[in-house]
Fold this protein.
Amino acid sequence: MKLLKKIKLLTIMAIVPLAIIGCSDKLDEPELNNNFAGGTDFTQTDDMVLSIIGVYEAFQSRGWEQPLLIAVRGDDVNAGGLGDQQDFAETDLFNYNKDYWMYNSLWENVYRDVITAHTGMEQIARYQELADDDGKALGDQYIAEAKVLRAIMLFHITQVWGDVFIPTSSNTAELFELEALPTQDEVMQHISDQMDEAIPHLPVMRPNERLDLPGGMTVYAALAVKALANQELENYQAVADACAEIINSGGFSLFPDFYELFKTPGKLSDESILEMQYSDFGQGEGDREGHLYAPYGPQNWGPAVEGAGSGWGFFEPSMKFIKFMLDRGETVRLETSVLFTDRGIAEIQADPNYATLPGFVSNTTRDGDVINDYARALFASGKHYLPSNQLIPGRTAYGSNKNFNIIRYAEILLTYAEALAHGASASGMTADQAVNMVRERAGLDPLSGVSLDDVLDEKYAELSMEWGKRYFDMVRLGRTDELSYDGRTFTTDKAFLPYPQAQVDQFPILQELDQ
């Protein structure tokens, strides 16, 4: 989110003793977690907001490798990056190296931010002891917001590793004392229960309607996280009920232009339920909040705006996905999702079934950026692309000022439809209506009597390259044959990454599970 610069500095000062030490170091000196607020004057209850802003700041400071690693194993995307980060490419092929730095970075940094969320909640509770009734209620809201942020991080971690820690406080020493590691189902149930605790205290509005912290957590983010956790538990009635609350609120709608949804016009739209927010603050130099999008971008391009930086070529839409979309007659969703090179187009046309392609399949985007051939990949991700003509003048970094979607209303519609396809009872809208809302924006004809296969195909088309959603759907539903493509062979023992060796060395409980 666009954090206020004046309070941002204070927030960083408040959380820096926690942020500057790694997970392993915190475990050696757990007392630091309880004392880092040292000189904080908790009688100044108006400063309570700084604690929740610190949690947001930590949540949004994703390393570039984190969403990349979470997303890479589906049949919608290939690793790219040939010639560099070979173990990342091997991960895409289901060949795992527990010594690979990305694994440890994802684990360690997400847990660091989970601990930061606990620290923020504990600080807020101390402010509440000295606050009036209004301050206590505001503190309850801030704690609820921190619970939602903590929950989505735990959700991602347990999707990747299965059985994982559930910290209950900022004192990480408790993790050494565990006799058993919570199972994935237990983590998902914990997330669902936490959302039930948070929901009564959260604002009932869209994220873009919040004036205090624009884009902050609302009741609908908690409902969405609850729905996704219960989807993993295959508790489809709970999924349908949570999604229905979002749908029946009437507050959300699909952004009309799918192409612009992932670009500047789509930032904090009425479709947004949860997104990480970044900003150049409208200025061509100086302070900025940003995510490193270069790994997703083409390694070689001719930008319409001279001087705009290119990418690294580490994230490539799969040929399987592209042909799936062509077979469906997709237009705007395919154009938006894939940046084509001439070499990639030639590879598609080498298959006689695709000798003639739609006009939008071009190495020049509608914004005039030319995607030149490069060695690492045939295609680049369009969902992580910001046209060079949308960069603020003076900014040259690839994707600078671009937000990062996590949960969109379109996903809630399709998650609801899937729950109904599994037998859950509807609450208002039908599965046909939910799916056809998404299809209408994509320019596709409506369906009648949608099946589970129809819903999953729609999710494939709509949510490709977003946080591994396709991969985790296929694993959850046992449709893992889809993941064996283009020379890859998936087996069920490859569903989760191995625990990072650096963490196995630290935690006795992980040593037992790693054997």
